[in-house]
Amino acid sequence: MTVAVPPPDIARTLALRFAETAAEHDRSGAFPHGNFAALHEAGLTALTVPGRLGGGGAGLARAAEVVGAIGSGDPATALVLAMTLLQHGLVHGPASRWPRAVADRLGQEAVARGALVNALRVEPGLGTPARGGLPETLARRERDGWRISGRKIYSTGAPALAYGLVFARTDEPAPRIGNLLVPFGAPGLRIEETWDHLGLRASGSHDVVLENVFVPLDHAVDLRPPQDWQGGDPLQQAWSCALLAALYDGVARGAQAWLVGFLRERTPGSLGAPLAGLPRFQEAVGETERLLSVNTRLIASLAAQTDAGPVPPPSEAGFVKLTVTENAIALVQRAVELTGNAALARRNPLERHLRDVLCARIHWPQGDAVRTQAGRAALEASSEGIFP
């Protein structure tokens, strides 16, 4: 079998192409289907599918590089790509609970037709399951399968997904909760186009409604007692945090590139020379370069350790996501301050970068959860050698 290993610079090349239409997709909210056709052709939608299935066989480090590069051109596209790369990174990993045949079919479809997959977890009443609670989405057992009914919100990539990994509870006397793999072509599944947000407008994060949707027995890929989901999965946390950090770092790099170009070109009549020659702008750009340098180190370290093992604890992955994304936000906000009115003009991309980068604070793990978990652990730690 020929293994589809993309060339190292293909993501940067595609990012430049995607950047040309990013503003148009942002304004209309239209899903960028053409971008995903190009990503599939380049082998990037199957980047983290194992080589034995024809995929790129990449780990987290390479996936983060690609997501960051695409994020600098079109963050909405990068977010959808990140979710698919994340799922394949986990589904085919050594700790996966999936039936091997189902996982292999999913990987083969990503290779053959660029099939996208994402986890559908958030609900109107529950919010994010990461903060606790049972999903309202119900999976009812039948002799040869399951019937699923419920509504999922913020279903990123919905217009292009081939599969949704639906988080649900069973109707068993002792309910289990977990993931069922649902084809998006299944009867009873529909998309309601509800996504109309300030940032990442082209991500197609609409509602997905399931009404008595049937899936075979082996599509219940990971059902467990509720208590088995407590504490989090370090591998899932590492992949999610690294890819989200890379995405928003990519947004910041897009803003930095625009800012540098603006300062080189902007020549006020009172100055008679480009703003780039003024020490205060040089210092400011040096500070934003510092933030990007720190981000690079943090993402690379988290990804490399995850690939090599042992996987860092969830708290460390959360710190990386929080620090990188806050650095990215600070950079874009500073770029706006330095630029002035031109920064908020719709004809320039900086206002879009600002709207997109602020979405980092919404993605799990959120800042309060990261800090509270770490603070509680520190305060509850053994007093031996630490507290009197």
Detailed description of the structure:
The protein is α+β, with helices and mostly antiparallel strands and 388 residues long. It folds into three domains: 10-114, Acyl-CoA dehydrogenase/oxidase, N-terminal domain (Butyryl-Coa Dehydrogenase, subunit A, domain 1, Orthogonal Bundle), CATH 1.10.540; 120-227, Butyryl-CoA Dehydrogenase, subunit A, domain 2; 234-380, Butyryl-CoA Dehydrogenase, subunit A, domain 3 (Up-down Bundle), CATH 1.20.140.10. The chain has helices spanning 10-28, 33-41, 60-73, 75-91, 100-113, 234-265, 279-308, 314-339, 350-358, 367-380, and strands at 116-120, 138-142, 145-155, 161-170, 177-183, 189-192, 206-216, 222-224. It is globular and about 80 Å long. The model has no long low-confidence stretch (mean pLDDT 94). Residues 244-363 form the Acyl-CoA dehydrogenase C-terminal domain.
Sum up the structure in keywords.
single chain; 388 residues; Butyryl-Coa Dehydrogenase, subunit A, domain 1; Butyryl-CoA Dehydrogenase, subunit A, domain 2; Butyryl-CoA Dehydrogenase, subunit A, domain 3; 8-stranded mixed beta sheet; 8 strands; 47% helix; Mito_Isobutyryl-CoADH; flavoprotein
Topology overview:
Elements: H1 10-28, H2 33-41, H3 60-73, H4 75-91, H5 100-113, E1 116-120, E2 138-142, E3 145-155, E4 161-170, E5 177-183, E6 189-192, E7 206-216, E8 222-224, H6 234-265, H7 279-308, H8 314-339, H9 350-358, H10 367-380
Parallel strand pairs: 1-4, 2-4
Antiparallel strand pairs: 2-3, 3-7, 4-5, 5-8, 6-7
Helix pairs in contact: 1-3, 3-4, 3-6, 3-7, 4-6, 6-7, 6-8, 6-9, 7-8, 8-9, 8-10
